[in-house]
């Protein structure tokens, strides 16, 4: 299969269309701003396009580097964009429909643990090789990563955490998740037998591919987390400014 | 010899401050914890500059050199600033020395300027960036005088930043949020350097060829990780300590 040919995970095309339809229906009752709509659309596009394009072909058949990039896009960036696209009323409606079990599942300790479990669990060699070898199980891997990402960002985007707690949550997430990228960067033998046997691309050896994949994963996560931390530090300063102004009055 | 002499002077200053406070019946201001932190800060400086770490740093491993720099420019200044916070800071210099300094308009103006958050942060960031330019880095390795000056720059820049972060004199130059923001800026700036070192495809510093089984590139990547881990430990601890009191009311509200 040529590296530039298209591969598909139709499940995620269907899910993206369904999510768009649900969003459009919800938007009739509570009209989101253009920015929110764009954010939601970008999140959907990121998932649908990265799993149904030549990126999928290279990720599923040639290079770990591209697979890790794909995972970063669907697990870290797309979930934030999707959740930022929801209006507060939409978020509230989801919480209400979810009931008590949803509220319990959205506790920060659980969401952080679930995200880390998805992050590390899906990258275990046994699971990763199995998912790549069967093909259909890639759907499961990607689904777990998207779900993990949505869980992780939910308490942050919906304002369930105070600003100091959000900073602690992000710091813990950043530190705890970074070991995977570092393991890829400093590894001296390939972790995944699938990519050892896969036809090479761009002259990258399996180990070089893995090292570069770790670098890319680390860079992407650092960027996402630093932006999020910067945003909450900004809010901390705003809160202090507001309480200072109130005290003067 | 210079680091030992400086450490002895620092220890003597701390001892006389401790003695004076004891004589005034305020031994509570200089408890064993402060003594331990101060001793730890000085020891870190000495270990970084005089132990086998220095030999490794001089021309064998870039990661060892990075460890040396973060110890003298970050960890040790942090410990020292925490150790001398409060009234102890005022007692650190004998009154015969402190009084003329405190009355000198020039000294006060200089301190006021360099301890402005933006000035201190700019000096710190410039120092961080400048000494990691490969040409300057190698030049310092070849000239001992310049290398000593480089180390002095790390220590001064670190003390400036940690004075703002810990606020040992309770000058309130920054709010808690401002201190958290400053820590985030420091981490962000450090992360840029970390990324350059970790994400480079080639070794950047010709003086280092790798050693002890580490290739030059792996050593360089390790140097980046050393910086990130050290910053996470020091700045992460600071941010946790600063934000912890604010987490309690939030928790109480959540459980109410």
Topology:
The complex is a heterodimer of chains A (249) and B (256).
Chain A: H1 10-29, H2 34-51, H3 54-61, H4 64-84, H5 88-105, H6 108-121, H7 125-134, H8 137-157, H9 163-186, H10 193-197, H11 206-248
Chain B: H1 2-23, H2 32-50, H3 52-59, H4 62-83, H5 88-91, H6 95-103, H7 105-114, H8 117-130, H9 134-142, H10 144-166, H11 176-199, H12 216-255
Helix pairs in contact in B: 1-2, 2-3, 2-4, 3-4, 4-10, 4-12, 8-10, 8-11, 9-10, 11-12
Fill in the keyword field for this structure.
heterodimer; A: 249 residues; mainly alpha; 11 helices; B: 256 residues; 12 helices
Describe this structure in words.
- The complex is a heterodimer of chains A (249) and B (256).
- Chain A is mainly α and 249 residues long.
- Chain A contains 11 helices and no strands.
- Helices cover 81% and strands 0% of the residues of chain A.
- In chain A, helix 1 runs antiparallel to helix 2 and helix 3 packs across helix 4 (64-84).
- The longest helix of chain A is centred in the last third of the chain and has 43 residues, at 206-248.
- The N and C termini of chain A lie far apart (70 Å).
- Chain B is globular.
- Chain B has one domain (2-93, 110-246).
- Helix content of chain B is 80%, strand content 0%.
- In chain B, helix 4 (62-83) packs across helix 10 (144-166) and helix 8 (117-130) packs parallel to helix 11 (176-199).
- Chain B has 12 helices and no strands.
- At the A-B interface, helix 9 and helix 11 of A face helix 11 and helix 12 of B.
Calculate the terminal CA-CA distance of chain A, rounded to whole Å.
70 Å
Order of helices and strands of chain A: HHHHHHHHHHH
Radius of gyration of chain B: 20 Å
Structure class of chain A: mainly alpha
Q: What is the mean predicted local confidence, pLDDT of chain B?
A: 91
Give the H and E element order of chain B: HHHHHHHHHHHH
* Individual helix count of chain A: 11
Uncertain spans of chain A, ≥5 residues at pLDDT below 50?
none
Main beta sheet of chain A = none
Biggest sheet descriptor of chain B = none
Number of helical segments with 4 or more residues of chain B: 12
- Beta-strand proportion of chain B: under 5%
Mean residue pLDDT of chain A: 89
- Give the domain tally of chain A: 1
Q: Which structural class matches the secondary elements of chain B?
A: mainly alpha
Please state roughly what percent of the residues of chain A sit in beta strands, choosing from under 5%, 5-15%, 15-25%, 25-35%, 35-45% or over 45%.
Answer: under 5%
Overall shape of chain B: it is: globular
Ranges of chain B where pLDDT stays below 50 over 5 or more residues in a row are none
Number of DSSP-assigned strands of chain A? 0
Quaternary status of these chains? heterodimer
Percent of residues in helices of chain A comes to: over 70%
